[in-house]
Amino acid sequence: MSYFHRNECRVCKKGDLTRILSLGEHPPVDNFIEAGKEQEEMRYPLDVYFCNTCSLVQLLDIVEENELFHGEYAYFSSSSKPLVDHFSKYADDLKKRHTLKSDDLLVDIGSNDGVLLQFFTDTCRVLGIEPSANVADIAREKGIETLDGFFTEKMAKDIVEKHGQAKIITANNVFAHIDDLDEIVRGVKVLLSDDGVFVTESHYLLDLIEHMEFDTVYHEHLCYYSVKPLCYLFERFDMEVSAVERVATHGGSIRVFARKKMGKPIESSVAELLSLEEQAGIHSLSRFVDFQKDAEALRDKLVSVVRGFRKEGKKVTAYGAPAKGNTLLNFCGFTGDDIAYVTDTTPYKIGRLTPGSHIPVVSPDILKTETPDHILLLAWNYRDFILDKETELRKRGAQFIIPIPKVEIV
Ligand code: TYD
Ligand code: ZN
User: Fold this and answer.
1) 166-172 and 105-109 as β-strands: parallel, antiparallel, unpaired?
2) pLDDT given for residue 73 in this prediction
3) Best CA proximity match to 372, nearest among 362, 385, 383, 358
4) Could you give the CA distance from residue 377 to residue 403 in angstroms, rounded to a whole number?
5) Closest residue to atom 13 of ligand 1, CA basis
6) 93-129: string of b/e by CB count within 10 Å (b at 16+)?
7) Reduced to 3 states, what is the DSSP secondary structure of residue 19?
8) Are 378 and 318 in contact (CB under 8 A)?
9) Which of 262-267's residues contact partners 24+ apart within 8 Å by CB, and which partners?
């Protein structure tokens, strides 16, 4: 068995948990498989729970890390241009907020291919931590020192010994992936200087709920944060959330700044977002009672649109093979009969099959010569960028099907 079920909340450790969404059993979304290996694929439950004590929305079925992250891990941040632009702006924002001296240290947990740190190499000392070896190698090729493995308290102690404490620690789109949050926060406390700041960016529960982004649920995403449970978490370690910002990445994210308690004033952004969450109802179970029904309604609509086109003999393909696209394809039960192929720019994914739905992934070059009738936009978070980039394809007659927040044909 390579998964286990947790009986207590990851943040407050209490057991008063209610299931709010069940998507069925899914294979890990980043395990694009080779043709012929379909039978070896494992599936695990994908159910979302609400903590009635601290309001954390989370998965409790934990697929072991070696099933999710491996040498061939698919995600290279720098392969999505909008994401690189995002990190460039993120770096500017951090430099504006915090004056960095050349001997200050910036540590990025889950540094991927160095997508954020590359913007700091002329500013201060940088250190990446990345468990996926082939992704880390790309960062090293850019001259960014990168440690292998997962961040732990022990690793934090080793870093302090060798490099000293960090002025800024960042953890982007990884803080929601961590099962043992206590270990990370203990490590952060060791590594962070007393005047330092810990910055995390994660997809935001309020956007997920308001824009029906249920496809962003997958096994790697263990937590769907709002500000309230994060305040709860840091409080347990005598730390505090000092500021929060909403950012547009991944369909809506929150950037959260946390620090050791030093009696400094807290930015009004924290109280403002907490109050917005309260008004939106996401601190109470009642807000989630229709979540399952709404997700199923969207699924049924999308399935009927795609199969309707197929009945008319139309060719349907998909655009982008993001992790969330696999949740959507599998929840809909789509196969190669519904969707002829998926185009994606990531070299690792090209030539393989999408997990679960087993649809071939091909290079976007095919769209230079072929014009599908309808293209399901799985990378809907890049909607404007892609619709604009594919103006020519659309002029040739291809129509995009946008699945989220509601099924729309453009
Ligand atoms: P992304 O939404 O960044 O991430 P996640 O997997 O966390 O949901 O993934 C976008 C995917 O879409 C990625 O595999 C690259 C691909 N892509 C394209 O093929 N063409 C494009 O123009 C863009 C922007 C992305
Ligand atoms: Zn809790």
Assistant:
1) parallel
2) 54
3) 362
4) 7
5) 322
6) ebeeebebeeebbbbbbbbbbbbbbbbbeeebbbbbb
7) strand
8) yes
9) 262/194, 262/195, 266/240, 266/241, 266/242, 267/242, 267/243
Give ranges for CATH 3.40.50.150 in the chain: 77-288
- Output the CA 378–ligand 1 centroid distance in Å: 8
CATH of 298-409, one of 3.40.50.11740, 3.40.50.2000, 1.10.357.10, 3.40.50.720: 3.40.50.720
Q: Mean pLDDT of all residues in the chain?
A: 95
Q: Among 382, 385, 394, 400, name the best residue to mutate to test ligand 1's pocket (greatest count of ligand atoms within 8 A of Cβ).
A: 382
pLDDT at 75 > cutoff 80:
no
8 exposure class (CB count in 10 Å sphere: 0-12, 13-18, 19+): middle
Counting residues of the chain whose pLDDT is more than 70, the rounded percentage is 98
Answer yes or no: is pLDDT of 99 > 90.
Answer: yes
Fold of 77-288: Rossmann fold (3.40.50)
For residue 31, give both structure tokens.
């395990």
Q: How far apart are the first and last CA of the chain?
A: 44
**Residue 82 and residue 322: Cα distance in Å, rounded?**
14
Give the H or E element holding residue 202. Answer: strand 192-203
Residues of the chain with CATH 3.40.50.720: 298-409
Ligand 1 neighbour 77 (Cβ under 6 A): no
**284 residue type, one letter:** S
Give residues with Cβ within 8 angstroms of 282, minimum separation 6: 55, 57, 205, 206, 209, 226
Ranges of H-type helices in 192-284: 205-210, 227-235, 268-280
C-beta of 83 in contact with ligand 1 (< 6 A): yes
In this prediction, residue 78 carries a pLDDT of: 81
Q: Note whether 360 and 302 are within 8 A (CB).
A: no
How far apart are the C-alpha atoms of 73 and 133, rounded to whole Å? 9
Residue 334, CA distances (Å) to 142, 304, 378, 387 in order: 39, 11, 13, 23
